[in-house]
Design brief:
Pfam families: PhyH (PF05721). By secondary structure, the protein is of the alpha+beta class. 28% of the residues lie in helices and 19% in strands. 35% of the residues are buried.
Amino acid sequence: MSAVATSSLDGFSVDAAALVDNPRQVAGAFRRDGLVKVKRILPADVAEAVCKRVHEELASRRAEGDSTYFGDVYGYEDTGQRWDLKLRLSSEVKDALRILLESLQGVLESLRPSWQLTELAAMCTFPADPGQPVHADTSHVYDQQVVTVFVALHDIPAERGPTKMYPRSHLDGELHLGLKEVDESCAVLCTMECGDCVLMDSRLLHCGTANKSDLSPPRSVCV
């Protein structure tokens, strides 16, 4: 079994224009694979403005010490290296959210006509974070499908701790029950450029990888 992700994310990628031109086709690929990467869905200046706001809020919320503004991060609660920050609806966040939802509307309606936004947060990972265990965010048996949208607020190369995903694992009951192991050779590493996003079925097996960079501020994606 390979120890690294070898499959290319390119095979699961579309340009932002496809969301408007062929939303049902994109939705069909998402149902099948459990993920879709969308290139350049946000203008870089919009993503960078949100990134600046996120880092300001993270510093402020950490200083306050109020856990209300943070979610639990599987595998690394209270270690101080991986933070799930609940976002305020600042002007920067509203601008980005409007662009995202206008672009994704057709795909989301194809998946579930009565869809609704349930969470708005930023996942921030500091250098030396060792990564997460492989997991799914929701049960493939008991929970409804949730579409998680990871938006890159800056370039996320391999050394900066991108999420690793296992295509089509959201429909594999044996994997979820632990009756077999994940095939690492089928995994994809979700490297992204600023303004890209990855849509993920919440039942898909995935994990945050180690942040091996020395770059500051922390690696950040909106989810």
